[in-house]
Design goal:
This protein is α/β, with parallel strands linked by helices. The protein contains 16 helices and 11 strands. Helix 2 runs antiparallel to helix 3, helix 10 crosses helix 12 and helix 10 packs across helix 13. The longest helix has 22 residues. The structure holds glutamine (GLN). The site of glutamine has 14 residues, from strand 4.
Length: 488
């Protein structure tokens, strides 16, 4: 078995033809991943014993499992801000270094029920704040395509683990671009689902009105399969929507050619690198030559998205992170001290174990929420958020000549060098300029490679943005592009 070229579909073919057992395959994935991880640092830790044990259980039920379960025996990596019962979940923060999850996130429960295997937990920026995975308190992840570069972030470990063939799929979270941007830097496919499409129960919250869990895989079909399994209504998440996604991964009868495609003129900005500009123009050219109807559209409030995001996100994050006081979710050694003082202990623990980026955002967030500033910043940002959503709704309005899907670049540049932006938070924030509006509007978007990049050059992705809960359109379009237009 050569694990390098495997997709979920090919892996299942191998299992069906009895070319290998799940136990053999998982053993091989683990060996390879552990070796590669020494240079890439995609995984914070592996679950070797647990996944081999699970593999041998699954092998006993191979015939039936393969018939009924789309992810049967499939090795996956899970971002370390998603809870798996009995395993650590650190969100790459020192303050959660000793926290062990006592229950499964809904996505984990669903994946387990479908026979998926979790070989380890992947690295991220601390509390998913960042765009390079350099903000992890534990290690730096490197881009498998070029080890001197970042894999993107915050789900850098999940993207790198798929790009380096360590797993067949992974989960990340996307609050402002954290699935689409690392997918782009590493040259894999990633989906940010519609807000409410996937339960957030058991994901360590960053900004609750923006966070969504989503999949990474090597092709669109595999991403669609994982999405199909993890999506759907969940009583444990009050923002979960009731939408039927049971055939979202079946593109057979979907006529992509009827889709009208919009290109937002505000996304072709000056700061964009020549490589990205050229690649995006290539996509537009291919799609037009292939007979698609393509129109220019306008999303005039795009220019406010970054400022709006950096008010709403810190506000929500400062509230969500208030619970990490070093006593809960950890080993509360302090409580044993005789001269224990509560408030001093909070200061001491948070001061010692929360990194620079979360600290910056907690300060910013508590400031914009404080009385006297609330209306000027937070309330205003909420209004701007509505305008950004209205831009998209207008563009998608078929009754006034609107479009069905929108295509845009994912990031202004390709993967940057490790260390290049660590001292300049603003320039780091700018790398999310094309992804953030989609989160503010709660829309789904698929990030996929422009080409196959088999020559080893740095990948460039583009994104396909859809209407709320119309993941099927963007997945079907992505699948069509990948199979018909992405040749080198
Ligand atoms: N890079 C963005 C940020 O730092 C997005 C993070 C995310 O999507 N989790 O906030």
């Amino acid at each position: 078995m050569d694990i390098k070229n495997l997709t979920i579909e090919k892996y299942h073919e191998g299992l069906k033809n009895r070319e290998f057992s799940i136990t053999e395959a998982i053993g091989e994935f683990l060996n390879y991943a552990k070796k590669e991880n020494e240079k890439i640092g995609a995984f914070l830790r592996f679950n070797e014993e647990g996944s081999l044990k699970q593999a041998s259980e699954l092998d006993k039920n191979l015939e039936e499992g393969l018939k009924e379960q789309e992810l049967f025996g499939v090795p996956m990596g899970i971002k370390d801000n998603i809870l798996i019962s009995g395993q650590k979940a650190t969100a790459a923060s020192k303050i959660l270094e000793n926290y062990q999850a006592s229950y499964d996130a809904t996505v984990i429960f669903k994946l387990k029920s479908d026979g998926a295997l979790f070989i380890g937990k992947t690295n991220l920026d601390e509390f998913a704040m960042g765009s390079s995975t350099e903000n992890s308190a534990f290690m730096t992840t490197r881009n498998p395509r070029d080890l001197s570069r970042v894999p993107g972030g915050s789900s850098g470990g999940s993207a790198a683990s798929v790009a380096a063939n360590m797993v067949l799929g992974s989960l990340g979270t996307d609050t402002g671009g954290s699935i689409r941007q690392p997918a782009g830097f590493c040259g894999v496919v990633g989906l940010k689902p519609t807000y409410g499409a996937v339960s957030r129960y058991g994901a360590i919250a960053l900004a609750s009105s923006l966070d969504q869990i989503g999949p990474f895989a090597k092709n669109v079909k595999d991403v669609a399969k994982i999405f199909q399994v993890i999506s759907g209504h969940d009583n444990l998440d009050s923002t979960s929507a009731n939408v039927d996604y049971s055939d979202v991964d079946d593109f057979k009868n979907f006529n992509v050619k009827k889709l009208v495609i919009g290109i937002p003129k505000e996304y072709l900005i000056d700061g964009m690198s020549d490589e990205v500009k050229k690649s995006f123009n290539e996509v537009v050219g291919k799609i037009k030559r292939d007979g698609f109807e393509v129109k220019e559209i306008s999303l005039p409030n795009t220019k406010y998205a970054l400022s709006c995001y950096y008010i709403i996100l810190p506000a929500e994050a400062s509230a969500n992170l208030a619970r990490y006081d070093g006593l809960r979710y950890s080993k509360p050694e302090d409580l044993k001290n005789e001269d224990f003082k509560l408030v001093e202990t909070y200061f001491k623990n948070r001061g010692a174990a929360i990194g620079d980026e979360p600290r910056r955002r907690i300060l910013l967030g508590t400031f914009v929420l404080s009385s006297g500033y609330y209306d000027a910043y937070y309330a205003k940002a909420q209004k701007v958020r509505r305008l950004i959503l209205d831009d998209f709704l207008r563009a998608f309005d078929r009754s006034s000549n609107g479009v069905d899907i929108i295509i845009a670049p994912v990031t202004p540049t390709t993967a940057f060098k490790i260390g290049e932006k660590t001292d300049d938070p603003l320039s780091m924030y700018l790398s999310d300029i094309f992804t953030i509006p989609v989160n503010l509007a709660g829309l789904p978007a698929l990030s996929l490679p422009v080409k196959k990049y088999s020559d080893g050059s740095l990948p460039v992705n583009f994104q396909i943005i859809g209407k709320h809960f119309e993941e099927k359109s963007i997945l079907a379009m992505g699948n069509y592009y990948e199979n018909n237009l992405a040749e080198n």
